[in-house]
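Researcher: Batch entry, complex prediction.
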Amino acid sequence: MPKREQHKLYWKAVLRLTAGLLVIWFIVSFGMGILFREFFDQFSVGGAPLGFWMAQNGAIYVFVILIIVYCYRMNALERKFGIKG
Amino acid sequence: MDQTFWTYFFVVTTFTLYIAIAIRSMAKSTDDFYVAGHDVHPTINGMATAADWMSAASFLSMAGLIAFLGYGGSVYLMGWTGGYVLLALLLAPYLREFGKFTVPDFVGDRYYSKTARVIAVICALFVSFTYIAGQMKGVGVAFSGFLKVDFNVGIAIGSAIVFVYAVLGGMKGITYTQVAQYVVLIFAYTVPAIFISLIITGHAIPQLGFIGNAAGTDMSMLETLNTVVTDLGFTAYTETTKTKIDVFCITAALMFGTAGLPHVIIRFFTVKSAQAARKSAGWALVFIALLYTVAPAVGAFARLNFIDTVNEATYIEDGEDYATRAAAIEATGGKPVPAWYKDWEKTDLVKFDDKNGDGIMQYRGPNAPDGLANEVEPNRDIFVLANPQIAKLPAWVIGLVVAGGLAAALSTAAGLLMVISSAVSHDLLKRTFTPDMTEKQEMLAARLSAAVAVILAGLIGAFASQLPFVAQVVAFAFGLAAASLFPVIFLGIFWKRMNREGAICAMLTGLIPTFGYIYYFKFINDDAGAWWFGISPEGIGFAFMWLALIVGIVVALLTPPPPEEIQQLVEDIRIPGRAGVKS
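Model: Structure tokens for the complex:
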């Protein structure tokens, strides 16, 4: 495959990965912690209501995981398309 | 060993350490001075970024704000961490691939325009000066509360220290001092938190104490807290009086603002490659999360402790001998006003007004069931500093916390100074007005502008003592960064068609209305009823960010596309290793 085509495919894959991770980013913070907080508050984590806990603690853990996943997936994509990072 | 000894001990030791590091890592070239030679290890940079990022607002104010806002404080927790996801996924690796020195550098080159570069400089200076005022205020609070030094003298000492290592070492000096400052501040934050968590919940890990039971009961700590505060007439801890749209907008403004803050972005110019920039953003968030997941626990514990020790305590006047009077009150089964309270009273950060004249301190919310008026007004900024005293922790812990608060404030102030000095010497002088400057002259200009910026920052900090809480002052910087810088950087990477005209209009659309709205509702009309769509000044940056994005796109579509070589540049920064590591 010509290099130009390769780069196009790579960029598409990057955009897909980025969009997917941002959807999760939105759900755990704005979704669970703010917009639908009351619904999630019927469940609990230890002694804290789930929605409240997501807003104060849980979302932060997910953010860390999201960046770690992003790093690994991006490295894999770069290998797959033969791009040196 | 008393508390003053330990405070001086930790403050002097850490300050000496910072200066020693700065002298060892003197900058020798503009590369060193602006971006620490582009070769900082990703983990080291992550740690430096965490210190750069966690300011006096994070360290001193945030837990106190959460203590009083309860669920409403979540905006800071999610807002100041979620922005790193945006930074890692949308900006940092691409800006690193672009390979220049500053944020205005990117804007100026990508939009092939000196006007755009100068507007970006104005945005960066605006954001940085607003932010630095909050830091200097934090330094003043820490000094005046503990070292019995005047507020303004405290600011002068802090400015002098930053002056030494920012002016000498530039980015290189700052990077390694920030690493030391991170270690000091995280230790200072978690040690008292562990002690207090043990006292209140019996868990050594504050994050577990937060969701655990109150010590010796089978009721959860949060439920206990909810009962205590609602009995006194406050909103329940897990609820808020803010509207949903406002909570949403403030959180979003803080997140997008984080991603657009120039002093955070420039830290990612110091690593080797786009790959290293991604990794570094991950490390930064790990180091930040260590403090941010502890903060809500500290806030909740502080609220419980405060009510427990102050409410219904018998007041002791300044003229009376504290020890004898306190013993007499205890002998009759009463609760004397705690000693830490009397200490902090001298700083005017806690106030008692005996409205019903019974000599007892009634702490009440707006809807108190017993109809009593509130008599105690604590300033939220003191909570992290006073917490160890409230929980009666050993004197050395208190000294450590003061050193930690100063580390947080100074590390952020130094990062901001770098933005200010590089914006002036590199973007305004070298790239716009006096392009034939030699490297030596540019270094001198950078050092001089850092020096002037330190002095200005100190003066602003002294003025800022009249402004409200540190965290709220800082919150404005985020609104401005979100609305003015984020849209043009984002579009510059993800939309090839974005052009000069669109970028200039977008930055102005973001900057002017956001500043106007904040200024109007903070300084002219404080009627919350008049807010647009119920969005507070803290959250308005998010709304104007969308306006800036739309205006930018529409204007770009109505004007000619950017030249071919700019479109090629955008293609190149999307593919790692193609733009090359230019410097």
